[in-house]
Structure formats: C-alpha cells, structure tokens
From TrEMBL:
Entry annotated with the keyword Nucleotidyltransferase: yes
Protein name (database record): Reverse transcriptase domain-containing protein
CDD domains for this protein: retropepsin_like
UniProt feature, compositional bias: Basic residues: 1-17
InterPro entries attached to this UniProt entry: Peptidase_aspartic_dom_sf (IPR021109), RTL1-rel (IPR032567)
Alphabetically ordered keywords of this record: Nucleotidyltransferase, RNA-directed DNA polymerase, Transferase
Length: 162
C-alpha cells in the first residue's frame, strides 16, 4: 500500500475518534413529562402548573422536577420573537416514548414573571406538548426553587414565596 493510502486510513481513524469525542461531550437529559396534559398534571403532586408571563406573553407553564432541562414548545417559541443560539455542546433529550432527540438550539435570557418577581430562563425549543413551557431542574436548582410540602399552591424561589 502506498503512503497516500496509509494517510487516508489515519485520517479516517482520527475522524472517527473526533466524532466519538463529540458524542461523549453532548449533554444528555430527560423530558418525560413533555407529553403530560393539564388534567394529568393537576393530579400529580410532583409538578406545578399555571399561566405565567414569559417575555410579556401569557404561557401555560409546567414546573417539573423530573425533567432535566427547561423547554419551550416550538409552536409558542416564535411568539417571543427571539433568535435561538447554538448550544455547544448540544443536548440529547430522551422524550416520553423513549426516543432520543438531538437538539442544538437554545433561547437564552427569556423573562419569566412569577408573582412580583422576574427571572431569567434559558429554554430549549422542543415539540408541541400540552404546555407552552416546561421548567425543569436546570432552572429550579439554579433558583433554589421547590413547592411547599408537595403542594403545587405556592412556588418557593430562593427562600422566598412567590
């Protein structure tokens, strides 16, 4: 075999190694409740739902501690008139039916109004579920948020009630 052929083989192995490293660097997450509807959410004490202002537009929001990231419906996202940026590394999201979806876009710096408080939230455009927005553990843990005694009546944010 000529040197030229041998070089192509090395190049191919290097390319495979780079692809494998890129795949490892992708962030993996879950979005199991993306298919949950409002009636199911009302019966589930592990979630909190409501209508809140997102960038001055009313949005139906599901707060879900079982979801790793925060999402925005691809039907609702255009209403915000904000350009998504590229997420590096991308995310591999496992949705309710077990399928894995690669996403590489994120809408950064959305403004979520809860009571008299305004919070910044980054949202990944994904699907057309029953909710306009799903707030996951990324935002909940960053803002030290939970709901009182498993009851979705009061959302606690950073030690204060909203």
């Amino acid at each position: 075999m000529s040197k030229h052929g041998h070089g192509n083989q090395k190049s191919s192995k290097r390319s495979q190694r780079i692809k494998a490293e890129a795949k490892k660097s992708q962030i993996r997450g879950r979005a199991y409740n993306a298919s949950m509807n409002a009636a199911e959410a009302a019966k589930d004490s592990s979630v909190f739902t409501g209508t809140f202002s997102l960038n001055d537009h009313f949005a139906t929001v599901l707060f879900d501690s079982g979801v790793d990231f925060s999402f925005i419906s691809t039907k609702f996202a255009p209403i915000l008139n904000m350009k998504p940026s590229i997420a590096i590394p991308g995310h591999v999201i496992e949705i309710a039916d077990g399928k894995k979806v690669k996403v590489d876009r994120i809408i950064r710096g959305c403004k979520l109004e809860l009571g008299s408080s305004l919070f910044s939230i980054d949202l990944i455009p994904l699907g057309h579920g029953s909710f306009d927005v799903i707030v996951g553990m990324d935002w909940l843990s960053h803002n030290k948020s939970s709901w009182e005694n498993g009851s979705p009546t009061r959302l606690l944010t950073g030690g204060g009630k909203t």
